[in-house]
């Protein structure tokens, strides 16, 4: 690293003449060695080489860690191992745990407590081993059986939706990881997230489920919202709903992320009662299964614009009575049945 040393003379920045560049560079190299810990490289085992496990292990491998074994039975998991982790042997979970010093547990959330308990009780997880899971909902508590045998726990959740293919590898660049870690594991957590190409945000143990609810509400319900908007456009005769929605929704998302509630436009914030009444009638006629979520989101939007003062309460009350009347005839969200005339297309990956 070339470092230019400066001194101030009459408020002007000039290069310092006294020190030779060679001596200055040597000192900086020595200083860097004194202050930075060399990155640790692990032998990695992955239990559950599913959408997330196979991709994270592949990315860790690319960063110089050695992936020594992976577990999983289904055809989909076997195919992912072959595609993303070529030459990595498939082993049963206890053998995977025994073979590595960083154990990646990427099983479904509801399986995680049992997997940790069984592996810890069987002696497959050992003292000093780093045990990492990627669940958004769980924090460190679920890893308590592993901690009890002396393992180091990390909860490291990528705020991303995965396809389980090579497409995801690049999406990890700049992806934020919600991390819960004890003081002793924080530096290591940051190193692993950096190796994965991501950035760390710290999530307190007690906020883990709320953190995950926020992401699910934003990302998963967004998929439902877009699907419903597409259905309404198709019912209105628009031949390519995605082409119509993409520029609009992209702009709305960008504006909302930049400006929050101030990004809102449309009939609710304008107080256009008759427009909302018309929407409700047409949605009821053509897509009654969409009515419950339209009303629920209109109510939430209305509450926010009245609270922050952009809509007069009297106007808000008129809108609320229109929504109340529509809700009386709407099927409840849980009862709403989607009837499609065409194939719904591929399933979206969950989060
Ligand atoms: N998908 C996402 O977009 C996403 C994003 C962020 C975080 N996450 C989190 O990442 C974790 C994994 O999710 P995923 O979507 O990758 O799941 P997934 O695609 O369903 O893969 C789950 C993996 O776990 C294995 N497995 C299931 N039950 C098991 C058990 N009892 N013992 C051992 N292995 C078992 C499965 O093997 P078989 O295939 O043989 O059944 C499969 O390889 C979850 O905690 C999830 O919340 C997911």
TrEMBL record:
SUPFAM superfamilies: 6-phosphogluconate dehydrogenase C-terminal domain-like, NAD(P)-binding Rossmann-fold domains. Residues 40-158 form the Putative oxidoreductase/dehydrogenase Rossmann-like domain. Pfam families: DUF2520 (PF10728), Rossmann-like (PF10727). Residues 175-301 form the DUF2520 domain. This is Rossmann-like and DUF2520 domain-containing protein. It comes from Nocardioides taihuensis. The lineage of its organism: Bacteria, Bacillati, Actinomycetota, Actinomycetes, Propionibacteriales.
């Amino acid at each position: 690293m070339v470092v230019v040393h400066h001194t101030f003379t009459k408020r002007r920045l000039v290069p310092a003449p006294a020190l030779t560049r060679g001596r200055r560079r040597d000192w900086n190299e020595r200083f860097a060695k004194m202050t930075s810990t060399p990155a640790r490289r692990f032998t990695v085992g992955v239990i559950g080489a599913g959408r997330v496990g196979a991709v994270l292990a592949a990315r860790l491998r690319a960063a110089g860690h050695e992936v020594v074994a992976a577990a999983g039975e289904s055809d989909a998991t076997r195919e992912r191992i072959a595609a993303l982790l070529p030459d990595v042997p498939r082993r049963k979970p206890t053998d995977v745990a025994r073979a590595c010093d960083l154990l990646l547990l990427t099983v479904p959330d509801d399986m995680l407590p049992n997997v940790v308990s069984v592996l810890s009780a069987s002696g497959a997880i050992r003292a000093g081993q780093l045990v990492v899971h990627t669940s958004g909902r769980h924090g460190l508590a679920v890893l308590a059986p592993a901690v009890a045998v002396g393992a180091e726990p990390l909860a490291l959740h990528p705020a991303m939706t995965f396809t389980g293919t090579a497409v995801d590898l690049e999406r990890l660049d700049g992806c934020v990881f919600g991390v819960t870690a004890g003081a002793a594991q924080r530096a290591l957590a940051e190193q692993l997230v950096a190796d994965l190409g991501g950035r760390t945000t710290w999530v307190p143990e007690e906020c883990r489920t709320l953190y995950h609810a926020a992401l699910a509400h934003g990302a998963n319900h967004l998929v439902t919202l877009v699907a419903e908007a597409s259905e309404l456009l198709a019912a209105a005769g628009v031949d390519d709903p995605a082409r119509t929605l993409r520029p609009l929704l992209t702009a709305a998302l960008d504006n909302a992320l930049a400006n929050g509630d101030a990004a809102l436009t449309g009939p609710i914030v304008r107080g256009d009662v008759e427009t909302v009444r018309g929407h409700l009638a047409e949605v009821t006629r053509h897509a009654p299964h969409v009515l419950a979520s339209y009303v629920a989101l209109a109510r939430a939007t209305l509450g926010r614009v009245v609270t922050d003062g952009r809509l007069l309460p009297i106007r808000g009350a008129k809108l609320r009575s229109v929504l109340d009347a529509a809700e009386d005839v709407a099927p409840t969200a849980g009862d709403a049945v989607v009837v499609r005339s065409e194939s719904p297309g591929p399933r979206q990956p969950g989060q």
